[in-house]
Amino acid sequence: MAEEFEPRIVAFLCKWCSSAGSDLAGVSRMEYPANVVPIQVMCSGSISPLYIFSAFNRGADGVLVSGCHPGDCHYIKGNFYARRRLKMVKQLLEYVGLEPERFRMSWVSAAEGTKYTQIIKDFVKELKPLGPQTKLRRTT
Amino acid sequence: MAKIEDLKEEAKKLLREGKVKYIIGYGVGSNGWMANPVFVKKPEDVDALVWDPTCVHNLTRFLVDEKRRKGKEKQPDTRPVGIIVKGCDSRAIVVLLQEKFIDRKDVYILGVSCEKAGVVDEKKLAKKLAGKKPSQIELGDKDQFIISTAEGKTEVPVAEILAERCLECKANFPVIFDLMSGDKTKRTPEKPFGSIEQTEALSPEERWNFWKTELDKCIRCYACRSVCPMCYCDECVVDSINMAVAADTTAEEKSEKIKWIQRSPESSENFVYHMVRAIHLGGRCIDCGECERACPLDIPLRFLNKKLEKEAKELFGYEVGFDVSQPALISCFKDSDPEDFIR
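The joint structure predicted for all components is written out below.
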């Protein structure tokens, strides 16, 4: 029997909220799929669209960007900038024909370990039927 | 189309009095009818300037080059540079001013109005003339271009050979200028985003196939980057290999330099390159269509930029290149920005 497809997700987590949230999920021993490669960044606003394109280019099946809730940003307004910029990225990815489900953003605070696990669970569940992402993946 | 006799007078005066360093404008090209960029340095050469529907180029790119050149000079000539701009080009200047890349006092803007028309599309024109060589193209009074060929004059309705972008133009006269020639009647396009409607209506899979066919053609000549007035980064992300390599740079150091995008013209790399370029131009592209014109493989690059222009307008109510005092699209935000894609 063929093995079930396990999507690989690259998650950019902001240091102050989402990364701490994923940490909380870890230390609380909550269970969630092991499909995520977390990358800690200083702020969701520091994420260049290039990171996202590059993640897809190097074989990510899905990309998650997670930051602090609006108003909670450690740098006051980094997540507002991120929201605007990444909306454009999302529209562009859709326009070139990538499945819209593959790129996602969320707000996860340092106390929301449960929410983080839920987001990952949902993401994995939605990515599975799509199969591997081959459109933007480097072939050589 | 505007007559530029009064601009020529002013240009002569400016050069004679030494108020500008030189004037960037359009002159007759080497094929006898298509305009070419010219640089006028002496007052007696001003008569070389022309203004007709073949002035397709966006000359503001030369302001970027000028700034570079000035930066390298030990004792730079600080006089402004005169430049002839159409409506679209003037918006490029607005964006450059908005981003504080150039200074208002460094440029003397001579605006020309496209009035009811715009510039011709070379390919459409060649098709229309079926091999005949034009000698002159003028704008008539009744929305038609008068094309003179060796066999006489032909009249062609404006809409038939007008460049795609001119059909969707929202600024048919300069929005910023020191001196302007021509009529300031605003024209509103029927479909400001008409050209992308077709691709937008496709299903995601069809759209993917469309872009795959188009972008696979790309040979990575970077003509689109070279011609774009907004592509002024000192080091482009695709050139990350041009790190300073000295005799003692080790192989390890070289391999540690991040290569975001490979230079080989493969499908995946082409996609990343063009998406990065599109996103860098999101909210900055003024739709001068130069990338598409310069592209040797006819990739519809305008569509990507137009799409993001549309999103900027619809999602954030942002219109590019009309207001110098407005902050750039991604350097501002509103509390009410869309959040539907965030959970």
